[in-house]
Each structure stands twice: as C-alpha cells, then as structure tokens.
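To fix ideas, we reproduce below one chain and its tokenised fold.
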Amino acid sequence: MLSYLHIKNFALVEEMAIPFYRGLNVLTGETGAGKSIVINAISLLLGERASSEMIREGSDRAILEAIFSVTSRDVIGFLKNNGLGSEQEIVISREISKGGRNICRINGNLVPVNFLKKIGAKLVDMHGQFQNQFLLNNENQLSVLDELDPACVELRQELSKLIEKKKELTKKLHHLGVNKEERQKKIELLKFQINEIEEAGIAKAEEQELIQKLKILSNLERLVKASSEAYYCIYEGSYQQQALIDSLANTIKNLEPLLEHDKSLECIVDNLKNAEILLAETARELHGYTENLSFEPGERDVIESRLEIYRQLKQKYGGSLENIFSYLDEAKQELLRLENSAGEASEIEKALKKMDNIVKEKAMHLSKLRRDNASKLKEGLISLFQDIALQKAIFDVKFNPLETVSSFGAETIEFLFSANPGEPLKPLSKIVSGGEMSRLMLALKSLLAEKDKISTLVFDEIDSGIGGVTAQQIGKKLKETAKHHQVICVTHNPHIAARAHHQYVLYKDNEGKRTLTMIKKLEQAERVREIARMMGSINDLTLAHATSLLQQN
C-alpha cells in the first residue's frame, strides 16, 4: 500500500507530506483546491508523462516521492530480479527539471521512466479520466477471469508447462534434423566436408614449407646472383681484386715471421687463422647453397596449386588451420550423432503428437470453464450496476480464438462495456467517461476484491453525475472494497466522504502574492464541518446531518 507521499514545488504545492493508511482514504475540498494535484503526483510516480509546466512558478525543479509497503511476492521478486533490492518497503522518487530532464529512482537506484510504469502497474490501480492500469490489459483480464475458478488457474499452469515442454522437444527435434529427409541431407553434407578435409592431407608444417619455397622461387634470380657473387668474392676473386681468403692467407704469412720478435702478435695471428678457416667454410656453404637453388619446371605451379587448397579450406571452414581441424572434429561428432538419431527423433515425434492431443484437450476444458466464469462475472456485475448509477449498463466478455494453443490457452478475451441503451459494446480502453470508468472499475473490484493482486486503488471522478441514494451505495461499495485494498478516493460527495476511514481536506492559502495548495488530515470534529460544507453550507442543520452520516458509518 501507499504509506507516504511527498510533493515539493509541484503545481501550486510548495511542499506537502501526506501519510496514507489502510482502508478508505478520501480527499475532499473546494473545486480547484488542488485535489487533482495529489492524483497527478501519484500518476507521475507510476510513470505517466511529465512536463516542465508542472513545476511550481519560481522553482527550477519539482520533486515527488512515495513510500510503498508491500507483502506481494510478485512485487518483491520483480524488484529482486531487476537488482533493486528485496525489501518490503519501496521508495520511488522522480525529479522533474525545467530543462525537461527526468531523474527517476527506485530504492535509490536510477531507473528509466518506463520502468516506473512496470512497477507501478503492480502497485497501484488508477481509475479516473484517461487513467487506467491493470484491468485494461487483455492478458490481465484473462488472468482475472481465470482466478474466479481455481480449476482454471490449475489448468492454465498445466498448459504453460506442457507448452514449454513442447518447445524443448521441438527444439531438440530440430537439432536432430527435424525430419528424415533433412537429416539425410545434413549427413551427406557432413560426409562430403569430412572427406574434403581429410583427403586434402593438410598440415601446418607443410603449409609453412610451401610458403617458404614460394618466397624463394619468387626471388630466385636475386638469390642466385647474390650468393654467387659472395662465393667468388671470398674464394675466387677477380682480375681486379684478390680473393678474400687469399688476401687473408698472405696477411697471416707476413705476420707469422714477426712472432719471434713480438710474442704479443700471437693472439692476432691465431684469430686470423680461425677467420681463414671460417671464411673457407662459408665459401663452401655458399657454393652448396647456390648449387641447390634450382627447381624443376612447373614446380611453382605445383606449389601455388597446393597453397590454393589451403586457402579454399580456410575460407570454407574458419579462416585458420586450427579452425579447420576444430570443425573437422565437430563435424565427425555431429555425423555420429545424426547417424544414431533416427530412433531418438522417432520417439520425440511420438511424444509431441501425444502432447498435442493433451494440450488440445486441456485447452478445450479451460475454454469451457472460462465461458462459465464469463457468465458468472457478467451476472455479478450487472447486479452491482444497479447500485452505482449504471442501471442500464451492459457488460460482456468477448472470446477471440487463437490459431494455435498458447500458454494462455486457445483464446484471448476482451472485457466489453456499454453505459447506455443503444450504445454498442466497446473494449474498456474505449470508454470516454471518467466517472463511468471509475464506477465500472469499482464494481469489478467489489466483485473480485479478494482475488485482485493490486494492493492500492485510486478513484477519481467516481461521483461524477450522481447523488443521493446512488452516492450512498457507491460509498458503501468503496468501504467494502477497502477491506481488501487500500482505497484512495477524490470526492465531492458528502455520503462518500462520510464512509472514509481517513479524510484529508485540500485548500488554498495565500502567502504574500503567491497562492499555495495545502492539505490537512482531519480529526472527527473537523470532518463534521468539512462534510457539512460539502452539503452546501455550514449551519446547524448540515452539521447535524454530517454528524448523523459519520455515526452511521
């Protein structure tokens, strides 16, 4: 239930704090006193569209806050699943700035505006002109209809489980290849792919070797020329220049006789001799390298053709050798599974066929129970309409068959309503009159009070165009509904106000050149005067009548 509402710098309100309680809470006051401000504030906290024009003149932002006490597992679970805590107290706040920016929070966590709508639909049912929540949603209407009979709820749960099981089996069958023809096609494709990879005989070492050979072939002329020149420079020399190895030998020959004069040259001579050996070895390797730089005619084409096989396989199976081998392993496993799946697929198909028959049978049974529930709901509402100024109204439930059975059953439904003779039945969302809508919702809530999951109901304009005995009956229905829900009601009618457990009066106060909307929770004596005022004027007769009304309730 809504336990606390705080409004700051909103419309004509500078600051207002309202504690709400269980039972029937009514808001009264002169026309234009600001009762709609409270309703609008609640609506905004439930995700309705905001405008910077709602901010009080002279302020940069408006702040709205509400505290809800909840016991519903559905609401607590919803918060927990969305990372917003699992407390039995929910704090919702919304800040509206002049620049149009909205900051919304739930339990201190920032949330988008549309999330307020989601949680709001679980906390409060708003009924007034152009305001609706829970019962205007077709899926929720179906849930309400089912909850009239525990057998419907049980059947629907069974249907939902069967539909989920069907989805799992269908998915598994699809994974097996759906049918024999498709499965065989897949088997043939897998065999072809496995054979293609294995016959290619690919290996990482071979690919690297082929790439290296192709590089050599592409640069063969340069490699031969450079290695030959290096060999001749070291070992052969030219008519212009002595070979390096001969030049080095001469140097050693010239230095060796000097060793008997200076032994320190011995290390240098040894190094030169080692260099001579290394140079001779290098010359031999260069000669061998040059001799081996020869390829058979057409070898380049062979290498390129082989590398093309690698390229095509990579393109088809994953872009790398590792991915090709990984795909090969997976393909072999899938082939084995498919070759062994014919029997499994047949069993699944039989199970699905059997399940289809059970689903159809349960859906037909559920449809019959729903039609019985619809008749009971229709009869119950039409009898209640007599007491709430809807004597000539008509209510019906429209059934819309589905092509295939879903987890909801074999149909969807719509609640239809007509307030006056000659007017066609229309979906609830098409009802224009706020008063009619509120009274219809009150009748529904009165009939479904113990089964409805929404804890707080807000009624605005419920007394539009009524008075006397009808107002007394509506007040009685509101109080009855308040046994199972917290009810917040804006009213101009003294008979309805007198039924309240808690009464608040809104009034305007002039502060300097500004007009502010204020609120006050009334004590018993103050309620007598307010109800007398609602009768037209405060005098001995109206005060006595107001006292009598309060004593009766």
